[in-house]
Design a protein that fits this description.
single chain; mainly alpha; two-stranded parallel sheet; two-stranded antiparallel ribbon; glycoprotein; cholesterol binding; actinin binding; signal
Length: 842
Amino acid sequence: MTLTLGVLLLLGLCQRTISEEPSSSPNSPDDLKFQLPTPTYETKDYYYTPRSIGNLFKMVHVFLYVVQPNFFPKDIVREILQKKFELSMDYGKPESVVLTLQVVQYEIGIIFWAVLGLLFVILMPLAGLCFGLCRCFNRCGGEMHQRQMRDGPFRRKYYALTLLVLCVLMSIGIIYGFMANHYLRTHIRKARTLAESNFRDLRTLQNVTVPQINYVLDQYTTTKKKAVSDLDNIKTLLGGDIQEHVKLKTFPVLDDVEAMAEEIRDTKVLLVSVNKNLWELKKSPEEIYRGLQDVKRDLEQSLKDPVCSVPAQRARCDSIRMSLDQLDNNTYLGQLRLLDNEINNVNGVLQTNLSSLVQMSYQSINNIPERVQKQTTEIPPAVKRTLNYIGLNIKMIAQKVPIQEKLSVFLDSIDNFESNIYRELPRVEKYESYRWLSCLIICCFLTLIMIFYYLGLLCGVFGYKRNATPTTRGCVSNTGGTFLMVGVGVSFFFCWISMLFVVLTFVIGVNMEKLVCEPYQNRKLFQIMDTPYLLNENWKYYLSGKILNNMDVNLTIEQVYSDCKDNKGIYTALRLENVYNVSKHLTIEEHIEYMNNEFAKINVNLDDIILKDEGKRNLLDFSDSGVEQIDYYTYLTETGKSLTKVNLLTYASGLKEHADKLPPGVLKESLTRNIIKIKDIHNIKALPLELQLKELHRQIQELQQRGSGLKVKVTNILDALDSSQKFITNDLPSIIIEESKEYADIIVSYFQYYLNWAKVAIMEEIAACKPVATAFNSAFDVFLCNYITKPMNLFWFGIGKATILLLPAIIIAVKLAKYYRRMDSEDVYEDDENIPMKKPCS
């Protein structure tokens, strides 16, 4: 009956399935993090484990293996459930005889111990009656006379110690009985709380399912918003990526062209400055040279002065005459041509605004996102229409998945089952009170017997006097013997009732443990219930017919329980894909193909973004302007010289030294006058021109540096421009296609992620049925096995041990009482021979 109720409980709690392993969810795209709402359940302990009393349960379990070492009889149980063994109809048939023998063979250990217990129940009252009658006739120890023997003291001590040990062992058994009785009563009272907790969890499971389904549907809206946002932002996402590729390839060369345009402008300014300075320096040195020639002629005339004929002054005059050649010309700037042709060529180049052309290219590249948006205006609306259609399709699929329909049946089953439990609980609690009181009375009677025995031992041991004769024993010792005999009498009166209770609980408890609890824990009970055509001759598997109405699906109770224990969803646990296959319908491959086809239509034309041909011609004209072909060596050589062969101030200082050593006269005056002229020429004319000549020399050096390798530079720039143009013409279209595909894949990936997540959520997470397995486990493992069966087994184990030990305790107590009670007669001894002699009874 319990087994059948358990199966019905499972069927009532689990009318739903799941089967197909969902595909693993891909990595979550940015901003798409879905987390299904998960409930919190009250029943936390899935496996119940007794604490302090658990070791006692294990001890009893070991004893059960000794009593019943046979394995679970699956075949016998199947035959019984298939109604192949009915006493009213099949008695005497060969099949029934064989099945009966199999049952007896399996239960032989239990039957053996039960028969022994029943014999104990039957024989102990008879033995007590016979014992009482025997003592009434002064037999069986009823004679109040104790024969004295040499080993009497030893026997007294031996009997006392043995009885004490037996009492201790029986007391332990009685304690087991009290503990088991208290444990059973305490935990039976927890049944209501446990049931309420499980039912609340089941209702929580039912109540959270609809919000979970709605959450899955709402996340499509979130996904759609993300996709629409990307579609509306195609300018930045797609156009920006294409722009980055173009920038990477074109900006460096456009920067070089921009630098070259700046170079052309700087070169023109430098050419004009060089030409101006060169033109000025070609005229100005003539005045210096004419002044120096006048000084030279004047000094030559002055050196004809007679003073130079004087031997003392002749050498000085000759030195002055020889130095006059230093006043000749040192440079020939007039031979250098002006740079008018080069200036005219550069001016021709500057007629084309190269910088403007470069800025136009920059602007074209910066406008790529806008051009992409304008050229793809028809794609986002088409994709949005597809997304709306997908959303409607997903809502239809959610309506067709039979989870909510099964949940309504599920709730009705819970209501009916809960009402039945609460209706029967008061009756169960009432009968539990009777059971508890009965067990308590048994334990108390056994405790009373133990009290008599302990009091008998206490009074007998401490009241016994070695020097006292059997007829002169004290009252305490005599009371101890009386307590022992009272304990014996109560034992005979009560032990058979105790043993009868032990036999009943033993047979029930052992079979419950071996036929229900153990098979439940090792799943063999599920295997029995999953036997084909067992519960319904038309259904191979009961759940397949009951829930799916499909005989071809192997839906077993064990599989449903395992899936629920692993907290899988109802869809997977009950293989609901056989009713409605979510994986088959929750797919958008054809819509993805349509969207990919739409994105494949993207065709962005960017051929005109690079530098125009006139810009390239402008660069070629600059390379041919002649700036690089100028004879810089000649210009630098001439401009690198000083205007005079000697420093005029130094030369004037030398003349002054000569003049100071000449006697007054015409020559000295001439030298003094020309010294002044030379200084004036240096300070007024030569010095500014020297500075201007140095500046011209520096400008020519700079111009040489600018013009050096100009053709190579221009060629490299033109090659880079050609490479960029080739990239735009040949490679950019494929890059646009690739970026468009990547852009499309990102949008599509949102929905692929959502669909994969939705499949996982529907199959594994929505209505995760762990509360069902928890409720089933609470009914069997916790309530039936741990709350009832195990303490029941501990009770009969403890009380049975105490009851069985009453038999040797009775014998020992009867023998020991003779040593404590006051006798009516005793043996007489002769002092010499110490031979006991029987004293006549008084």
